[in-house]
UniProtKB/TrEMBL annotation:
Recorded GO CC terms: endomembrane system; membrane
Alphabetical list of CDD domains matching this protein: VirB8
InterPro entries, per database record: NTF2-like_dom_sf (IPR032710), VirB8 (IPR007430), VirB8/PtlE (IPR026264)
Protein name: Type IV secretion system protein virB8
Transmembrane intervals: 36-60
Localization per record: Endomembrane system
Pfam families linked: VirB8 (PF04335)
Bilayer topology term: Single-pass membrane protein
Lineage, highest ranks first: Bacteria, Pseudomonadati, Pseudomonadota, Alphaproteobacteria, Hyphomicrobiales
GO BP term, example: protein secretion by the type IV secretion system
Family: Belongs to the virB8 family.
Species in which this protein is naturally found: Bosea spartocytisi
Length: 238
């Protein structure tokens, strides 16, 4: 019996090793690219985060806290938020405009037989258009509700300003009360007025400039009663 011839081992195609090496190199290259991209993204995000922190640090000193006070009127229950005045140019400064608005309302609403003409002239100086025309009609001799006819010489009306707010730069909302004093009683009434105004650069007489140097003019004036008078009957709207 003769020995069987041993089979030759199967040879591996050399291309298999070449393809395997190529695949391994491709995987390694992809890993390197992924790591490089990850580092680039991380670096960019770090720069963005540092920039954001820098901007935030610059904005922190600009943050301000504005104190304010809430006031409740015991008579009417009206709630008002009082804030500090803002800075601005003289002709638009809130304090100057507030002064002019208050001066107009006091001149118009005050009734003092001894200063009647002075108050009327000042109110007319600070008004124009409908506001000036309405005031002239109120004090017209033909008006049955002329304050002179209603109050005579033995009654005075004093004005107490409670607050002045500005819904916009050409409108004021004013809350005030009037005390009507006669020989026998004092009647207090609460009012709210809407005043629309402007500053005019139109020429005017020198003596008028002394009392109104900035050319403040009330265009429209509306007054509404805020609550029932105490004591006495309701007053007429002007």
């Amino acid at each position: 019996m003769s020995d069987a011839t041993a089979p030759e081992p199967k040879r591996v195609d050399p291309r298999y090793y070449v393809e395997g090496a190529t695949w391994e190199q491709d995987i390694a290259r992809r890993n390197r690219n992924s790591r490089a991209l990850a580092w680039i993204v991380a670096a960019v995000m770090s720069v963005v985060a540092v920039a954001a922190l820098g901007v935030l640090a610059l904005l922190v000193p600009l943050k301000t806290y504005e104190p304010y006070m809430v006031v409740v009127d015991k008579t009417t229950g009206f709630v008002e938020v009082k804030r500090p005045m803002a800075e601005g140019a003289l002709t638009q400064d809130e304090a100057v405009t507030m002064f002019n608005v208050v001066r107009y309302i006091k001149a118009r609403e005050t009734y003092d037989p001894r200063a009647l003409k002075d108050n009327f002239d000042l109110a007319q100086l600070l008004a124009t258009g409908d506001a000036a025309r309405e005031l002239t009609e109120i004090y017209s001799p033909a008006n049955p509700n002329n304050p002179v006819k209603l109050h005579g010489t033995n009654t005075e009306i004093a004005v107490n300003i409670k607050s002045v707010t500005f819904p916009n730069n050409r409108t004021a909302l004013v809350r005030f009360s009037t005390d009507e004093k006669s020989a026998t009683s004092v009647v207090t009434r609460n009012w709210v007025s809407l005043v629309r105004f402007r500053y005019s650069g139109a020429p005017m007489r020198n003596e008028w400039r002394f009392d109104n140097p900035l050319g403040f003019q009330v265009l429209e004036y509306r007054r509404d009663q805020e609550s029932a008078p105490s004591p006495g009957t309701a007053g007429a709207q002007q």
